Each structure stands twice: as C-alpha cells, then as structure tokens.
User: Which sequence fits this backbone?
C-alpha cells in the first residue's frame, strides 16, 4: 500500500512533468527547426534561381549571334557548353515563332513551347529550377527563347540531411531537459512531498507529531514548516488535553475517595422514588450489599414494613412533594423529611441513621434528590455508655428509673396486678380443663394482651415473650371453643399452664431487679402512696415523742436516701461533660432512711458537693490518663445509719485538695488561714468558709465560693458536721455526720 | 409545641410510657384509660391513638363513637395494634391509619412524627395549590 502510493506519487509528479515537458519541447523544437529549414531552403532556392537566371541570360547572349545567322550547329555547341554544367538537367533554344526547338539537350526531349517570353523568368519547382530568357540580337530584335532547367537534387539532399540532424538534436534536447526535470522534480518536489506523506502516515498511525526535516525556502519548505508548526500545536493541545483529562480523573478519583471515606451514605433518588446513578460505598455498607440502583429508597429506609406503615406513607408523600416543588422553595419542605430512621429495629444489628435531603435542580425543577445518611449508632451507643456503664441493661434500667422517678407505685401495682392476673390464668386453666366458653377465653385473652403491652412498656422482654406464647395458646383455644367443644384440649392447656409458670418466673426476676434498683430496695414493694403533708402534720404532732409512737411516726416520715440521690446518678455525666470530663456517680445504701427535714435539705447539699467534686476534684481525662488513672472519674456516695442517725460519705478519686492554693485564696480574701497545711480540720473550716474560691474564674458548676459555705450552714442547722480528708493525687472524702459523734478517722480511712 | 395527641389505652403503664416518650419529643399528650368523655378533648387534638384491644371495647367501636361524639373535629384517628392483620384493615374500621405496636416507645414516636409530617405536608400542598390557582380564584 505504502509503496504503491509512493509509486503513484512518483508517476503523478515526476514522470508526468517530464513526459509533458518532453512532448512540449519536442514539438517546439520541431516547429522551430522546421521553420529554420524552410527558410534555409528558400534562401538556397533563391540563390539557385538567381544563378539560373544569370547562366540562362549568358547562354541566351552567347547563342544570339549564331541564331541570328541561323547557324544551328554553333547553337548546339553552345548548348553543349551549358550542359557541361552538372546542375543543368535540360537546355533548349527556340527560334522566334518556331514550335520546335533549334537545339535541345538531351536531344529529342520535346518540351512544351514556353509562352511568349520578352523578359527572363524563373520557375521554381520541387526538384528543379527552370529559367527562361529571351534571345535578343545586338540590334534589339527578339531572335528566340533559351530555356535551361537546373536540378535541385543536390540541394534537396543537403537540406534533408540538415533537417534530420536538427530533428535528432531537438529530440536529444527534449530528452536531456526532461531527464534533468525529472531529477530536479524528484529532488525539489517529490522527495520532500514523500517525506511529508511519510510524516502524515506516522501521525495517522498514532504518533502525536512527526516533525519533517526540510529547510528549503520554497513553497514545500514553507509547507514543511507549517506542518511542523501544526504538529507542535497538536502535540501541545494533546498534552493539555491529557493534562486536563488527568486532572479530571484525579478530581473524579478524589471525589470518589472522599465519598467512599465519608461516614455518610449518599443515595440519589429519582422522581420514581428509586435509587439512580451512583452511590457511595458507605451506602452499600449501610443499606446492604448488592446493587442499590433501581431499588426504592422507601424500602431501603423502612425494610420489612407493612405497605400501610405511616412512616412509609409519609416518606412517599414527601418524595412526591419534593419533585413537585420549585427548587427555590426547597426549605419549605426540607424539614418535612424524616430526620432519623432506625434500621432493623429490635435486632442486635439495629442502626440509627441521621438523614438529610438535598435537591439537585435542572432547568428550574428538582431533578434528583440526594439523601445523606449518617450512621450514628456508635455515637448513640457511646452516649449510652457514658450515661451508664452497664450497656446490656441500659434500656431496662432507664425504664425502671423513669418509672421510679414517677413513683414506684406504678410498677409495684403492675407487679401485683400481673401476679393476680397470672393467678387468674391458672384458675382459668383449671376451669377450662372441665368446661370453657368463648367469653371466658376472650376475657382472659384481653387480660393477657394488656399484660403483654405493659410488660413491653417496662421492657420486660421475657415476660412479654411468655405473654405472646400464652396469647397463641388462647387463640388456639378460641378456635376449638368456637367449634363447640366444651372441655379444652389437654395439650393446649398444658402448654398454657407451662407458659403461665414461665411468666411467673419472669415476673419474679423483674421484681428482684426492681428491688435491686429501687432507692428504697425491698421496701419499695411495701410502699403505699400517702400524702406527705399528712405525714408532716403527723410528725409535727407526735414526732418529738420518744416513745414507740414517736419513733414509728419518724420512721413513717423518713425517706430512703436513694429517692434523693438517685437523680444525681443521671445528672453527673452531663455535668461532667460540660467541664470536658467523664465522671460517674455510685450510690451505696440507698435504703438508708433520713429524716424528713434532712431529706428536704440533702438534694441541695449533695448537688453542691457532687458538682464541686466534678469541678475541682476530678481531673480532665488526659490528666487522669497520665496519672495512671482510668479516664472516667468516680464519685461515690455511701449512706448508712446507726443509733446516732444517718451519715453520708462522699468520696472522689480526683486530684485531692491543693492546700496551698486554698490557704493562698483565703489570704487574698482576708480570711484567717491556719499556718499548718496538714491541719485538716482547719483546712475544712477554711474550705467551707463563706466566699472562698480557688478558681481564677468561676466555672458553670462551681467556683463562685458560695456553695460550700451554704452547705455547712444548712448542715449545722440540722446538727450535722462536715469532716474532710484529702490526699493529693488520690482524692477527697467528705463525711456528713450528726455532731453527736465524731468518728471520721475510723470511717474515712 | 409540635401537636396535640390523645391516647386511649386500657393500661395506665402503656399510657405513661407513651406520654413520657411523646412529651420528650415536644408533643402535648392527653391520655385516658376510659373512653367515656374522651370526645370532649377532640376539638384541641390533632391525632388520636386508640389501642385496639381495650377490655369491653373494640377500637373500631371506639372510633365510630368518637367520630359521632365530635363530628366537626379535624383530628385523625390511628389504630395502635400489635397485629399487622388488624392494622391492614384500618380503613374498614374507619381509622385514618395504623401504628404497629412493636413494644417500644421509640417506634411509636417515629410513627407519630411521620403522621405529623404528613399533616404539615397536606397543609403545604393545599397552600401551594391555592397559590397556583392564582389570586383571582377563591380557595
């Protein structure tokens, strides 16, 4: 292919140019030489004609006398002289008026009589020149006509040879010129064009540029330079394009990496409610592996739901509205979208997603809606852990607390009600073995159903599960009862009995848990609701009596300290978080009863002490870590009572009290300070002095110097002392005890 | 306040738990374990949640009674049931929808949230429609 093209190129330019040139040159030379030859012949013929005229005139003059005398022989002699000239072919003499010549050579050759000739004339023919001259006497009388014919054979031969030579010369000239032209054309045109063609083929084969080495200043040189410039420009543009493509690819890659590393799952929803286009890798991790494309977003968010589920219906309605609304009005529907969803709720791998929706507009309409889902399960779990170390029971305990906070009566009632209901179920089973009615089954079913609902509310999963099994047995029973059987089938009843027993066991377990959790412990089960105002009145009437009645009334009015301190357990982590710390509160001896008056004051006192311990005692997590302590600090409240009354020990595992700082702060405020830094009683007095603070700036929790002073004032009004012991780096212990007894050394250590 | 809810259930414990959970989310909640007199709350209520298995009553009877008692109240009635088969028939029982009871208040709150979003969406749709019909037309 390449060779044939190159040959085509060769023929088309070199050969055609040469062939054309040869043809034109040959033609031109031929014409020129023909013209030259013709002119040469004319010149020769003219000379020949003049010569012929002169010879004939001389001949006519020489034969004039003999003819005048009629001497034919003499004429003939002269005729022979003329004939001796090799160029003369024929010669003849006519006497005037005669029809035949007097003499003629060669003899006998009769030539036509020339016309009446008075002047010499010459006739030129192809191969001869005929000259005729009148023969005139000395007297001027016309005597006859002389006629001589000269041959042109010699001149013609010379001319022909001359013409052939010229023709050869012109052909030679044309061929040489053509050859030279071919050589020059090859060097100046064909070879450079071939170079260009070769370069073009290299570009065609994929090279970005193919520079051509041609430095001539002619048109082809200019063409080559233009070609090279074009190649450079193309190469430059290719490089820029490649650059841009690389940058685009890089950007695309980073975008994908960004999307993939984002904790958010990104899903793009079309107007059909289905997933469109690409989604991030996290989307696969959150919504399950496999292709999401084409799946309905509502199904991703709410899998395994009924089609009439309110959340699904609300989402579908929202999606329809989202694609209907003008994009500029997006904020009107933005907060109508779900903000959170719980996937696989109720299973161990449940996950909570925070949702955010953003419009993608095109041509003034919402074209796609982008959903960003963040998995916040771990954060929620962490929050849960901070609030409560026992993650496994976290929910259950929270429920218990909630119930206890609202008065444990509800749960106690629930326990006794369920117990009664379970007894009712046992009775029912007993009756049903003999005879059973539809109404009986339905009534017991409703009770079991209610029991199940309540068990769920209290998060007693095993009780709820047993209730479900009991319901199943009852449904079975209802079927056969409707069919008209009078006695219940034994197998169904046996199952029901077994489930009832299991439910009772579950109830006992939750009762035990409640007792463990309740501020008043097992007392909680015996508590009844009595108006506090009545109790206060009763105590005022007889509480001061030292007899049994007085003691019973004081005990009635007394409250378990758990009721007071329990809420601090919930509040402590939140307070600590505001200070950038992690703290938990432990409460021991929650059943300990405190008098009505102390119970009114203790919430404030304990709050002050706990907040003070958080603000000043417990270190920040990193400080604790470097001190070799667990990040989470512990504040412990221990309550006990003996014959002298109830006492409380509030200890923390924080940094302890900086005695020097306390003394310095006291001096700054003009409060008399002890000299000995190891005098703990004096230090306690100082700490609990009104208006002292060691914090440079009061924090939100403490440091305003009013709390501890007020605490002491309130406590001493109730006959309580404050004793404090602090070890630097180990923590602080504060004992609140009735001032009738001072045994701090024994307890605090 | 995000909206007012009336819950009817025979169990005070269920009511307490639901009330606590919904109030924590900013709803105003009225509860009642009796159906008698419940209709007097309806005028100020957006959503009524009715337990299907109340002793002595079926939820379907309760909703018919409430609708009769307060025919001009604009509230929506929702069935609260653990039985998906009953839930599916909410329309036949004259409810506006159903909440599936899963034994936790979290899912109840999510479903209630969805209903209130729906109510707001309906209002917005009505607004947009009236906006689109142009100022010359009356709503």
Assistant:
């Amino acid at each position: 292919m390449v060779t044939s093209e190159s040959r085509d190129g060769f023929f088309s330019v070199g050969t055609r140019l040469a062939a054309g040139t040869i043809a034109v040159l040959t033609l031109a030379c031929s014409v020129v030489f023909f013209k030259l030859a013709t002119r040469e012949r004319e010149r020769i013929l003219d000379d020949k004609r003049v010569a012929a005229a002169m010879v004939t005139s001389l001949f006519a003059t020489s034969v004039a006398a003999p003819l005048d005398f009629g001497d034919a022989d003499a004429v003939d002699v002269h005729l022979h002289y003329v004939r001796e000239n090799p160029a003369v072919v024929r010669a003849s003499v006519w006497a005037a008026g005669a029809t035949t010549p007097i003499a003629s050579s060669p003899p006998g050759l009769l030539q036509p009589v020339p016309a009446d000739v008075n002047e010499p004339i010459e006739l030129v023919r192809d191969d001869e020149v005929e000259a005729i001259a009148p023969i005139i006497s000395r007297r001027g009388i016309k005597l006859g006509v002389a006629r001589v014919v000269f041959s042109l054979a010699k001149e013609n031969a010379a001319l022909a040879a001359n013409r052939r030579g010229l023709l050869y010369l012109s052909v030679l000239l044309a061929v040489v010129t053509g050859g030279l032209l071919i050589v020059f054309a090859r060097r100046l045109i064909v070879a450079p064009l071939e170079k260009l063609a070769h370069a073009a083929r290299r570009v065609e084969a994929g090279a970005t540029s193919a520079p051509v080495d041609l430095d001539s200043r002619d048109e082809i040189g200019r063409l080559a330079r233009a070609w090279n410039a074009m190649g450079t420009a193309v190469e430059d543009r290719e490089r820029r394009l490649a650059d841009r493509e690389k940058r685009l690819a890089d950007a695309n890659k980073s975008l994908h990496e960004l999307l993939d590393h984002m904790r958010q799952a990104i899903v793009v929803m079309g107007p059909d409610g289905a997933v469109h286009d690409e989604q991030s890798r996290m989307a696969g991790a959150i919504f399950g592996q496999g292709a999401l494309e084409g799946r309905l977003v509502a199904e991703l968010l709410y899998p395994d739901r009924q089609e009439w589920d309110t959340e699904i219906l609300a989402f579908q309605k929202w999606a329809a509205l989202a694609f209907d609304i003008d994009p500029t009005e997006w904020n009107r529907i933005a907060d109508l979208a779900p903000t959170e969803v719980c996937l696989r709720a109720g299973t161990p791998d449940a996950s909570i997603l925070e949702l955010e929706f953003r419009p993608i507009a095109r041509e003034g309409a919402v074209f796609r809606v982008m959903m960003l889902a963040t998995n916040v399960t771990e954060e929620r779990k962490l929050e849960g852990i901070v609030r409560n170390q026992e993650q496994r029971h976290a929910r259950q305990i929270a429920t218990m607390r909630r119930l206890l906070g609202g008065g444990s009566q509800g749960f106690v009632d629930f326990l006794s009600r369920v117990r009664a209901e379970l007894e009712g179920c046992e009775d029912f089973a007993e009756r049903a073995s003999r005879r059973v009615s539809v109404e009986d089954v339905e009534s017991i079913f409703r009770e079991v159903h209610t029991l199940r609902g309540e068990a769920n509310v209290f998060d007693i999963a095993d009780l709820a599960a047993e209730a479900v099994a009991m319901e199943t047995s009852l449904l079975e029973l209802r079927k056969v009862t409707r069919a008209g059987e009078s006695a219940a089938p034994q197998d169904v009843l046996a199952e029901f009995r077994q489930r009832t027993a299991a439910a009772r066991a579950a109830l006992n377990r939750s009762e035990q848990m409640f007792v463990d959790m309740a501020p008043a412990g097992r007392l909680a089960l015996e508590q009844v609701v009595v108006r506090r105002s009545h109790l206060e009145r009763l105590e005022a009437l007889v509480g001061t009596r030292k007899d049994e009645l007085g003691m019973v009334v004081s005990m009635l009015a007394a409250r378990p300290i758990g009721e007071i301190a329990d809420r601090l357990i919930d509040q402590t982590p939140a307070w600590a978080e505001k200070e950038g710390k992690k703290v938990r509160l432990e409460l021991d001896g929650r059943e300990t009863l405190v008098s009505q008056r102390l119970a009114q004051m203790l919430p404030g006192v304990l709050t002050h002490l706990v907040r003070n311990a958080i603000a000043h005692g417990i270190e920040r997590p990193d400080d604790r870590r470097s001190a070799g302590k667990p990040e989470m600090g512990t504040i412990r409240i221990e309550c006990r009572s003996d014959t002298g009354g109830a006492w409380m020990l509030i200890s923390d595992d924080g940094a302890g009290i900086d005695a020097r700082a306390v003394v310095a702060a006291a001096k700054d405020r003009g409060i008399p300070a002890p000299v000995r830094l190891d005098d703990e009683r004096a230090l306690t007095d100082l700490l609990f002095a009104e208006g002292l603070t060691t914090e440079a700036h009061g924090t939100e929790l403490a440091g305003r110097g009013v709390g501890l002073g007020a605490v002491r004032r309130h406590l001493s009004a109730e006959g309580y002392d404050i004793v404090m012991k602090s070890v630097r780096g180990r923590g602080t212990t504060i004992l609140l005890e009735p001032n009738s007894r001072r045994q701090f050394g024994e307890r605090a250590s | 306040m995000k909206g007012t809810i009336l819950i009817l259930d025979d169990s005070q414990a269920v009511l307490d738990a639901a009330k606590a959970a919904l109030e924590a989310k900013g709803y105003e909640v009225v509860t009642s374990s009796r159906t008698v007199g419940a209709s007097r709350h309806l005028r100020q209520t957006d959503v009524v949640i009715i337990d299907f298995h109340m002793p002595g009553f079926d939820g379907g009877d309760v909703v018919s009674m409430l609708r009769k008692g307060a025919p001009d109240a604009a509230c929506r009635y929702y069935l609260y049931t653990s039985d998906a088969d009953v839930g599916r028939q909410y329309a036949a029982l004259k409810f506006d929808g159903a909440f599936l009871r899963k034994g936790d208040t979290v899912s109840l709150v999510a479903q209630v949230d969805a209903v209130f979003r729906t109510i707001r969406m309906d209002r917005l749709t009505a607004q947009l429609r009236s906006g689109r019909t142009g100022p010359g037309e009356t709503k």
In short: The longest strand of chain A covers residues 351-362.
